[in-house]
Every structure is written in structure tokens, then in C-alpha cells.
Amino acid sequence: MWRYLIAWFGLMVIAIGNGFIREFFIETRYSTGVAYQLSTVLLLVLFTAYFWWLFKRWPLKSTGQAWALGTVWLLLTVGFEFGIGLLGGLSWQEMLQQYNVAAGDLWIAVPIYVFIAPRLFAR
């Protein structure tokens, strides 16, 4: 299970790279709201490629292992997100706004996908 925990850091590298792409390429062409939506979709695509590669290389042994890993990855992801947000001076309201689907924010798809992806890719 340790290698999967270390593999979580790959998700963070991808997410940071995606943020760079959004800030320097997507936001120069689209409004901030649309840029965040496009960036979220791009992140899900990049995560899918990473998951495909990761679970092909290190297949999960059981459904239970997949759900346990998804739970750990979800906690790490949300903890990282809110921790960085608080360190960056964001308020709870600003951070929770990213989860407001009614306002067009799609970010909630990312932690949901991080949670279910190990089960989706488990053999």
C-alpha cells in the first residue's frame, strides 16, 4: 500500500502542472470561470492517464483495497487542498465556493474521481 501512497504525490504534481497550464495558457484566452471549468476537465483527463498507467503497473488486489485507497487519496487530496488554501490566506467560504456546482464550479468532480478511480481501474 505504501507505493500507492507515494503515487498520490504524482496526483499533486499533475494538479500543480494543470494549474500552471490554466494560469498561463487557458486564462489568457477565456474568462476565469470558463478557464477553471476547462482546467477541471483537463485535470480529470490527465488523472485518467495517470491512473491507467499506475494501475496497469501496480494492479490492485481487491475491491476492498481499491475503496481503502480511494478513501485515503480523498482525505489526502481534500486535506492538501484546504491546507494550501488556508496557508494561502483563503477563507473557508472562498474554498467551499469551488464546490458550488450551481454557480458553475466543477471542482467537486476531482475529489469524487480521486475517491472512485481506484475502484474503476481495479481488475
Describe this structure in words.
The chain has 123 residues and is mainly α. Helix content is 77%, strand content 0%. It contains five helices and no strands. α1 (2-26) packs antiparallel against α2 (32-57), α2 packs parallel to α5 and α3 packs antiparallel against α5.
Keywords for this entry:
123 residues
Task: Give the number of helices.
Answer: 5
Shape: globular
Order of helices and strands: HHHHH
Low-confidence stretches: none
- The rounded Rg comes to 15 Å
**Percent strand:** under 5%
Taking the alpha carbons of the first and last residues, their distance comes to 16 Å
Kindly state the number of beta strands: 0
Biggest pleated sheet? none
**What fraction, in percent, of the residue positions are helical?**
over 70%
Mean pLDDT equals: 95
Secondary-structure class: mainly alpha
